[in-house]
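Thread title: Can someone regenerate the structure for this chain?

I was given the following input by a collaborator and told the matching structure tokens would be attached. They weren't. Posting the sequence so someone can regenerate them.
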Amino acid sequence: MELIIRDYGNADRDKVNRVALAAFDQYEGQYEDWTSFQEGIGRMADLAGAADLIVAERGGVVGAVVHVGPGGPRGALFPAHWSLIRMLVVAPSARGQGIATRLMEAALERALQAQAPVVGLHTSPIMEAALAMYLRIGFVPDCALPPIRGVPYGRYVMEREAIPAALGRLRRA
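Best answer:
Regenerated them for you:
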């Protein structure tokens, strides 16, 4: 079955939220106050109101990612003129099929179109597969961030000039 990468539609709301919850389930026990953390993760679709929510579909929604363009909503961790990539999630049953790669490709294409000078994201060493992909395609560590619910996090960045090379690496993956 073909993998389709497309923009989020309102009918995707519950499916995206379920995939986000399933994707983060493996981290239960590592975050403090798991219940409230999970509530936030389970509202991933709310990000579609002010950002690009991109969906991966193969017989149903199997993944999603958010691109927040310059000027979009963000916390103090990221300058307003940057693009951000948030919440790259893939259903556990669909992992290892290149879905995260295709979603990251779509998010970086949006960042390139937005002409942001920098693309930023935050992640944790406990998210081993995601962190390895980010580093492999050219994101570089920028700074350590305060822990989120007891879990260490860092900010990673990619300059706009590095996006075409990152897209090339993703397309060869």
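The two ends are 19 Å apart (CA to CA).
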